[in-house]
């Protein structure tokens, strides 16, 4: 999370612990305790010490690759006829880390984002552990839908660039060690430790378009390593010191502080995206699209939203002759990857209380072997795909299921 507080007041409360030794009440004996009682605490202490040595080694070797990010954004606010308009500077802090010897710094998009749809912040500076001053940074590429961004500080001394090796998030096991680095509440170069609580948690991450609106549901790593505002964009490392994720969100339970449930973007998603970010020329990298619209729309207060078939009652699905779940294909854009693969859109509209559905076309029930019941499910299946990749869709057509292979060309990324 990006910390926009101008200052953080930390109140440290000390607990004084005292003890009184009552000599007369302490039995004295020359007998030796049993060997089992002696060896168990010794083994436990040894295990703790081994884990501590591992954590300290990770910090010593890779914390110099951590980057502290500060942003500034000029915002004009209208205070009415009494005070008029005033320009204020909003400050933000976050984290990032070096991914190569060229000095590319990976972080969250929301760390460097401007207000609203203004793209990126007016000023971005970075500071490394052994650097005395903050250095201006420039944006290499952004991917709002993934909540990722790549920045670089051309004026940074090359001997201060310390890349952290990237690991393999697909090989994660629940329960393994996780070390989070960052700047919680602006406290630079902080380290916390925990475990991987889940390696396949589906949550909304990122922003649509130029950074506004809802994110795309993606697979995320859940960890209990403490993550707080200011940790965003920092690395989550395994016991070998390799990056397994990019810290991005927390579940707060109503507060703005960690409740022991933090989330990180899997590093493999970032690795797949890095070449496109490096070639973006300061622009935006978008998630691939097939060229279809959802065919089932329901009305909610103030807007119409696309939904999956599971939103309908079983009786409603039966009356419409549709399967129990899936994404109804509404329209197929001519010349799109979906059109070239032979995907079929709806032919006739059927209205019902609270919505409408286009019937007669395909229903996507799975993508790359994963169930699909909403547009978010389809987007999640496409997130790691690149130009030239082929995506296998299972579609329901006329009461039967079949597979269609969709090849993603350049138009899928426009």
From TrEMBL:
* Gene Ontology biological-process entries: proteolysis
Q: Which residues form the PDZ domain?
A: 309-399
Key word Ion transport present in the record? Answer: no
- Entry annotated with the keyword Nucleotide-binding: no
Q: Which domain of life is it from?
A: Bacteria
Q: Name one GO molecular function term.
A: serine-type endopeptidase activity
Write out the entry's keywords from A to Z. Answer: Hydrolase, Protease
Which Pfam families does its entry note?
Answer: PDZ_2, Trypsin_2
Q: What is this protein called?
A: Trypsin-like serine protease
Gene source species? Deinococcus terrestris
């Amino acid at each position: 999370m990006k910390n926009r507080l101008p200052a953080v007041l930390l109140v440290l409360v000390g607990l004084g612990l005292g003890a009184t030794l009552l000599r007369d009440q302490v039995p004295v004996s020359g007998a030796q305790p049993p060997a089992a009682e002696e060896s168990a605490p010794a083994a436990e202490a040894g295990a703790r010490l081994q884990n501590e040595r591992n954590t300290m080694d990770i910090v010593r070797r890779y914390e110099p690759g951590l980057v502290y990010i500060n942003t500034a954004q000029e915002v004009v606010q209208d205070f009415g006829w009494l005070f008029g308009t005033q320009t204020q500077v909003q400050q933000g802090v976050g984290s990032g880390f070096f991914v190569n010897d060229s000095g590319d710094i990976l972080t969250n998009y929301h760390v460097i984002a401007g207000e609203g749809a203004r793209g990126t912040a007016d000023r971005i500076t970075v500071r490394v552990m052994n650097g005395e001053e903050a250095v201006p940074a420039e944006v290499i590429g952004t991917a709002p839908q993934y909540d990722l961004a790549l920045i670089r500080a051309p004026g940074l001394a090359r001997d201060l660039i310390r890349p952290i090796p990237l690991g393999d998030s697909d090989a994660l096991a629940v329960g393994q060690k996780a070390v989070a680095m960052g700047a919680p509440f602006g406290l630079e170069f902080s380290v916390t430790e925990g475990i991987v609580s889940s390696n396949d948690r589906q949550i909304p991450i990122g922003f649509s378009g130029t950074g506004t609106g809802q994110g795309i549901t993606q697979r995320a790593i859940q960890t209990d390593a403490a993550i707080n505002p200011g940790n965003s964009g920092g690395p989550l490392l395994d016991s070998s010191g390799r990056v397994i994720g990019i810290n991005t969100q927390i579940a707060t339970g109503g507060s703005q502080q960690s409740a022991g449930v933090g989330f990180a973007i899997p590093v493999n998603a970032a690795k797949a995206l890095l070449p496109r970010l490096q070639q973006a020329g300061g622009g935006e990298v978008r998630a691939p699209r097939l060229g279809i619209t959802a065919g089932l729309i329901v009305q909610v207060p103030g807007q119409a939203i696309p939904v999956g078939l599971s939103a309908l009652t079983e009786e409603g699905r039966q009356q419409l002759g549709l399967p129990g779940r899936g994404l109804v294909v509404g329209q197929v854009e001519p010349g799109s990857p979906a059109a070239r693969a032979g995907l079929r859109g709806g032919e006739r509209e059927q209205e019902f209380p609270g919505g409408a559905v286009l019937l007669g076309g395909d229903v996507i029930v799975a993508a790359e072997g994963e169930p699909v019941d909403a547009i978010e499910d389809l987007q999640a299946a496409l997130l790691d795909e690149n130009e030239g990749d082929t995506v296998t869709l299972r579609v329901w057509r006329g009461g039967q299921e079949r597979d269609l292979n969709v090849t993603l060309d350049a138009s899928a990324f426009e």
